[in-house]
Design goal:
The protein folds into 4 domains: about 130 residues, Beta Polymerase, domain 2, CATH 3.30.460; about 80 residues, Hydrophobic Seed Protein (Orthogonal Bundle); about 120 residues, no CATH class; about 55 residues, no CATH class. It is built from 21 helices and 9 strands. The strands form 2 sheets. Strands 3-4-5-2-1-6-7 form a 7-stranded mixed sheet. Strands 8-9 form a two-stranded parallel ribbon. By secondary structure, it is of the alpha+beta class. It is elongated, with a radius of gyration of 28 Å. About 55% of the residues lie in helices and about 10% in strands.
Length: about 425
C-alpha cells in the first residue's frame, strides 16, 4: 500500500502516546478503514485489539491521562477510555490469532488491522480491494446472523461511505431480515438516526424498507411514505435557497436528543401513522425520547393546517404557541406534502423575525400585575386574561400596559356579570 496511507494511520493524531501500548497491538475497524480512505473527522473513534490484558491496559491509559474509563463487556473483555475529542475502545482478541478475530467481523472493509509498532497493515480478507471498489462485502453469513444489527448497519455504512452493497451480501441480508426483531430497539434507533439525518441516507432507507428490515418497526409505512422522504430532502434544499436561516435551522440537532435533527424528525413523521396518537405509540415502542415524539406528533397535527392566507392573527398566534421550536420541521413536512410555498411564506417570515409579536409575543403585563391591579386572587382565569391580552396585542387593539390592564378589567367585569346572572 502507498506510504501516504501509512501516514494517515499515524499514531500522531491519537489522544495518547502509542508507546504506552504493548506489543503486539492492532488498530482495527472503522478507524483503519477511514484512514485508508482518507476520511477524517473532528472526533476520533479508535478500536484496538490486544492478545491479552485489554481491560488493564485501558485502565492504565485512562489513569495516566485522567480520562474517563468504563468496562463495556466484562465477558468479552472490552473497555473504553473517553478523551475530550476521542473515544478509544480496547478489546481482547477473539480466538487464538488476529486473523481469527478479523474473520469474526461484519464486512471485509472493517476487517483490516494496523500495527503501529511495525507500521504493518494486515488484510487477510482483501478488504483493501473492496475499499478500492467501494463495495461492502460480508465476511460470512453467520457473522451477520450472530448480530442481526449488522444487517441494518450495512445500509448505514454504505450510505456514509458512498459504497454499494455486494449483491450476494444483500441477498443474505434479505434472507435474514426477520432476525432484526431480535435486536434491542435502542440499537436499531441509532442506526435509523444516521439514515434519517441526511439526503444520502434516504435511498438506503428505502432499501431497508424494501428488504424488510424496518417494516417490523414502521408497520404503517408504504411506498408513498418512502417517496415522501425524497420530497422532504428536496424541500430542505429549497428552504436553504429561499430562506437560508430556516434551511440551516432544519439541519440543527434538537436539544436534549442524541444527534436527531429537525430534518430527521420531519422524515420520521413520514414513516409513522398519520394519526398523532397512533404515531406516538409506534415511537414509544422504539424508545424515542419525549422530545422527539412531541416533535413528530406536532408535525402530524399542525402541518396540515399551514395555510397562512386562511388563518386569522388569533389563529396564527395560537399556532405558533403550540408549534414553537418545531416550526422548521412542520414547514418542511408541509412543503413535502404539496403545501404551496406561498401559503406558508408569511408564517416563515414571522418565524424568522425575532421581533414579530405573533411568533414571539412580548407580554405587556404579568399575572402578578393583573392580580394587584384588579385585586383578584390567583386562578386559572388569570392565564385566560393573559392570553386574551396577547391576542389583542397582535391584533393591534392594545399596545401599552395601561391598555392591557383596562382590557383585563373589562373581561373580568364581564365574567362577574355573567356569574351574577
Amino acid at each position: 500500500m502507498e506510504g501516504s496511507i501509512i501516514s494517515r494511520l499515524s499514531p500522531e493524531t491519537w489522544p495518547f502516546d502509542w508507546k504506552l501500548l504493548p506489543q503486539p497491538v492492532y488498530m482495527v475497524g472503522g478507524a483503519v478503514r477511514d484512514g485508508i480512505l482518507g476520511r477524517s473527522g473532528e472526533y476520533l473513534d479508535l478500536d484496538f485489539v490486544l492478545p491479552a490484558n485489554a481491560i488493564q491496559i485501558a485502565r492504565n491509559i485512562a489513569k495516566y491521562y485522567q480520562a474517563g474509563f468504563v468496562i463495556l463487556d466484562p465477558a468479552r473483555k472490552i473497555a473504553r477510555v473517553v478523551f475530550p475529542q476521542a473515544t478509544v475502545d480496547f478489546a481482547q482478541q477473539e480466538g487464538d490469532s488476529l486473523e481469527t478475530d478479523l474473520r469474526r467481523r461484519d464486512f471485509t472493509v472493517n476487517a483490516i488491522a494496523y500495527n503501529p509498532h511495525t507500521q504493518e497493515i494486515i488484510d487477510p480478507l482483501q478488504g483493501y480491494v473492496d475499499l478500492e471498489s467501494k463495495l461492502l462485502r460480508m465476511v460470512s453469513p453467520s457473522n451477520l446472523s450472530d448480530d442481526p444489527l449488522r444487517l441494518l448497519r450495512a445500509y448505514r455504512q454504505a450510505s456514509q461511505l458512498g459504497f454499494t452493497i455486494e449483491p450476494n451480501t444483500q441477498g443474505v441480508i434479505r434472507s435474514l431480515a426477520a432476525n432484526i426483531t431480535q435486536v434491542a430497539v435502542e440499537r436499531v434507533r441509532v442506526e435509523l438516526g444516521y439514515l434519517l439525518a441526511s439526503a444520502a441516507g434516504t435511498p438506503w432507507l428505502k432499501s431497508t424498507w424494501e428488504d424488510g428490515l424496518i417494516t417490523p418497526f414502521f408497520p404503517q409505512a408504504t411506498h408513498e411514505s418512502l417517496t415522501k422522504l425524497v420530497a422532504v430532502d428536496t424541500a430542505a434544499v429549497e428552504l436553504v435557497k429561499t430562506w437560508q436561516p430556516l434551511g440551516l435551522k432544519v439541519q440543527e440537532f434538537i436539544k436534549d436528543t442524541i444527534k436527531t435533527t429537525w430534518l430527521g424528525v420531519a422524515k420520521l413523521a413520514c414513516l409513522v401513522h398519520s394519526s398523532p396518537d397512533i404515531a406516538e405509540t409506534e415511537l414509544n415502542s422504539l424508545t424515542y425520547s419525549r422530545t422527539e415524539i412531541k416533535a413528530v406528533t406536532t408535525i402530524l397535527k399542525f402541518a396540515p393546517q399551514l395555510k397562512a392566507d386562511e388563518m386569522s392573527l388569533r389563529e396564527q398566534y395560537f399556532f405558533f404557541r403550540e408549534v414553537g421550536a418545531v416550526f422548521p420541521a412542520v414547514a418542511l413536512f408541509a412543503l413535502a406534502n404539496n403545501c404551496l410555498v406561498e401559503a406558508i411564506a408569511p408564517l416563515i417570515t414571522r418565524y424568522l423575525n425575532p421581533d414579530d409579536l405573533v411568533a414571539y409575543p412580548t407580554p405587556l403585563v404579568s399575572g402578578q400585575d393583573i392580580m394587584i391591579s384588579l385585586k383578584i386572587p390567583a386562578s386559572p382565569f388569570i392565564g385566560k386574561l393573559l392570553t386574551e391580552i396577547a391576542v389583542a396585542q397582535v391584533e393591534g387593539r392594545v399596545s401599552t400596559r395601561n391598555e392591557a390592564i383596562e382590557l383585563a378589567a373589562s373581561l373580568e367585569e364581564g365574567r362577574s356579570e355573567g356569574v351574577r346572572e
